[in-house]
Amino acid sequence: MVLQLNQQLTLEEFFNLPPGEGDITYELIDGQAIPKMSPKKFHSSLTRAFLFLIDAWCEDKGEICPEWSIKLTRHGRDWVPTPDLLYVSYERLPENWNENEACPVPPELAIEIISPGQTFGQMAGKAQDYLNAGVLRVWVVDSKDRSITVFYPDAAPKTYRGDEVITDSLFVGLEFSVEGVFQKAKIPVKND
Fold it and tell me: Residue 70: how many CB atoms within 10 A of its CB?
């Protein structure tokens, strides 16, 4: 459902909208307030697993936050996506910044977990938009495929599965296996 308005929303108008019914989260896309898909159990479990994993690694380096909107631009227009998780270092956003508003800088990492009704292609397009807006890495997590695809600004995306270990020079000391994350999230293996 799109919040129906007769005009395109400005960034200020978007942030001044009344709250949606229930726990609806909106993203600003092409001047429209678009509701985000409500997470299901696997999605929430993966969010928790990544949150714990990255939070243990990033102490004193930055912050990992779930469902924190970001002020970015896309195709020359204001864009306010809400990734499932984002990591922003204290180099990009000072530790003493303490405002109750959207993240004002592109984070180093945005994590998007594919929800029912979403496709990998849609998330790959969104990943490219994040990279074009200054985000340095995007992880697209597919619980059905049990994979994590890492998108880079200067290289082709790489998909990891099973016992493959994800490491990245941008996140020194953070390493984990894909299957380890899915096991921590208690996502059952489907036998087709």
Answer: 23
Rounded Cα distance, 102 and 85, in Å: 13
Two structure tokens written together for 24: 């609806």
137-142 and 109-113 strand pairing: parallel
Reported for 73-80, long-range contacts at CB under 8 A and 24+ positions apart, including other chains, are: 73/133, 74/29, 74/129, 74/132, 74/133, 75/30, 77/30, 77/31, 78/10, 78/11, 78/14, 78/28, 79/28, 79/29, 79/129, 79/133, 80/11, 80/14, 80/27, 80/28
> Backbone dihedral region of 156: left (phi > 0), alpha (psi from -120 to 50 degrees) or beta?
beta
Question: Residue 41's pLDDT is what?
Answer: 78
CB 72 within 8 A of CB 86: no
- The per-residue pLDDT for range 120-160, each reduced to its tens digit, is 999 999 999 999 999 999 999 999 999 999 999 999 999 99
- Whether the model clears a pTM of 0.90, i.e. scores above it, the answer is no
- Residues 182, 90: Cα–Cα separation, whole Å: 29
Strand partners, 124: none
Burial class (CB in 10 A: 0-12, 13-18, 19+), 113: buried
